[in-house]
Amino acid sequence: MATSVTSPLGTLEWLWRGQAGLAGPAASGSALADLFLHFAALSLLSVRGAMTTAPDMQRFVVGERGWLGDAQFTASVALAQAAPGPNVLFVALLGWNIAGLANVLATLVGKLLPSGLLVLAVDRLGAAHREARWLRAFNIGMASLVLGLLLSTAWLLAQPTLASHSRARAALAACSAGWLQATRARPSCPALLGAAAGALGLFA
Amino acid sequence: MVLVMAVGQTRSDGAVTGTLLGMGVAAAGLVAGKAWRMIAGQARNPLGRPVAFGLTIAALLTVDLLRWPLLAGVLSLSLSLSLGLGSASVLLA
Fold first, then answer.
1. For residue A74, what is the enclosing H or E element?
2. A68: contact with B, CB 8 A cutoff
């Protein structure tokens, strides 16, 4: 239910209110604070990149609050992966999809500020105790958890593909995964390929 | 971001829907590929494969299958994590 844009002022309002329009369920101040706090808490846990917290964001934003549909959530993640720049931008897209620029600020600041401060603190601590056994042990233990969260994100994003039983989609997903094994360069290439194929109606 | 704004205005368009769909499929593959690369690294985890992959599966189950909130899930996992930490410190000693 995109708001139709007829004037510069309308465009501004559309940007501020977001996809859900004036009736956006998350536009109230308390909901904004809610979103900010949840993302701030998650921020502290996003040890190896924002993608690991995607399943929990989906649980909160789609499952618990119903602010976004599954398709909108997946689209936000997909767009951030295809676009140049850090993947954490999908958090901004989530915020905007829910209720416009006000939410972009809530989600992005919530997501970046606590983990930024934490990273600074941990970095100092880590530099001081580089050889400390507990730090190395923590990193080793965390790597296992992060892998679990990453698998969970992949599972979440793969749902539409698995449900469709489409060979073209399965082939594209496999190619994207293979691309990462073969080269370290430009993960946005498979995403752009998928975008082009999708635009041509290959997955319809 | 500008791209997304443009997408928002034409969401009902079939080509736009297809584009988003294609990007979603590719994104799923990319994340899976990233995880696959980590699995190879995990095989050399000093915790040993059973503990390392046990922790991974525990994280997967609590977050994905049981849909526990990540905060509570991680708290509960910290029990098993501390177990892992113990064995890690022994192995690293």
1. helix A70-82
2. no
Chain-chain contact of B36 with A181 (C-beta, under 8 angstroms): yes
- A-facing residues of B in 7-46 (CB < 8 A) are 7-9, 11-12, 14-39, 41-42, 45-46
pLDDT, tens digit (0-9, with 9 covering 90-100), for A67-120 = 777 777 887 788 777 766 666 667 777 776 776 666 667 777 776 676 666 666
Inter-chain residue contact B25 with A176, CB threshold 8 Å: yes
The dihedral of CA A52, A61, B74, A88: what is its sign? positive
pLDDT tens for each residue of A160-203: 777 777 888 888 888 888 887 887 666 677 878 888 887 787 77
- Return contacts of B51-54, CB within 8 angstroms, 24+ apart: B51/A144, B51/B83, B51/B84, B51/B87, B52/A140, B52/A143, B52/A144, B52/B84, B53/A144, B54/A144, B54/B80
A121 touches chain B (CB under 8 A): no
Q: Measure the N-to-C terminal CA separation of chain B; round to a whole number of Å.
A: 49
- Predicted-complex ipTM score: 0.71
Q: Best-predicted range by mean pLDDT among A1-15, A48-62, A151-165, B72-86?
A: A151-165
Start-to-end C-alpha separation, chain A: 22
